[in-house]
């Protein structure tokens, strides 16, 4: 039996917020001793509109945070914990806009373990 990393924040997977508010999308995880590869945390936005493709919005890889992929959220999002490698890959999104509505997927990889979790965010108009 191989133990591998586990995402522990599965209690709330739907969030409703008003425009202008802040949301923290949870993604906490526990690594296991078997996981030896580099840690990789990736947040992907799966748009409500199926015509649009998934968009990486922020990622953590090899001790660096990359957050310039998704111009629509530049400056409005950050990892909740500036050092996510100790088990907290949660994402803060500030000053919410209705266009932020969608399904967010947190993917945590540390070979051989890979886990992901989807969270539905609805941003309501004023």
Write the layout of secondary structure elements.
Elements lengths: L5 E2 L6 E5 L4 E3 L3 E2 L9 E8 L7 E7 L2 E3 L10 E3 L11 E3 L8 E9 L2 E12 L2
Parallel strand pairs: 2-11
Antiparallel strand pairs: 1-4, 3-9, 5-6, 5-10, 6-7, 8-9, 10-11
Structure overview:
- There is one protein chain.
- With 126 residues, this protein is an all-beta fold.
- It has one domain: Immunoglobulin-like (Sandwich), CATH 2.60.40.10.
- It contains no helices and 11 strands.
- 26% of the residues are buried.
- The model has no long low-confidence stretch (mean pLDDT 91).
- InterPro entries: EJ_Adhesion_Regulator, Ig-like_dom, Ig-like_dom_sf, Ig-like_fold, Ig_sub, Ig_V-set.
- It is a single-pass type I membrane protein.
- Its main location: membrane.
- One of its GO terms (cellular component) is basolateral plasma membrane.
Largest sheet: 6 strands, mixed
Indicate the CATH architecture: Sandwich
Computed Rg: 14 Å
The fourth-level CATH homologous superfamily is Immunoglobulins
Give the termini distance in whole angstroms.
51 Å
Beta fraction of the residues?
Answer: over 45%
How many discrete structural domains?
1
- CATH class term: Mainly Beta
Number of strands: 11
Biggest sheet, strands in spatial order?
A: 2-11-10-5-6-7
Query: What ranges have pLDDT less than 50 throughout 5 or more consecutive residues?
Result: none
């Amino acid at each position: 039996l191989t133990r591998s990393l586990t995402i522990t924040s599965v209690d709330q997977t739907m969030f409703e917020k008003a425009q202008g508010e802040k949301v923290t999308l949870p993604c906490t995880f526990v690594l296991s001793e078997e996981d030896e590869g580099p840690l990789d945390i990736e947040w992907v936005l799966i748009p409500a509109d199926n015509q649009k493709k998934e968009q990486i919005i922020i990622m953590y890889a090899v001790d660096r945070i990359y957050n310039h992929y998704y111009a629509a959220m530049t400056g409005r999002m950050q990892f909740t914990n500036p050092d996510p490698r100790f088990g907290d890959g949660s994402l803060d999104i500030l000053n919410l806009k209705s266009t932020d509505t969608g399904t967010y997927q947190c993917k945590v990889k540390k070979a051989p373990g890979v886990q992901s979790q989807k969270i539905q965010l609805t941003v309501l108009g004023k």
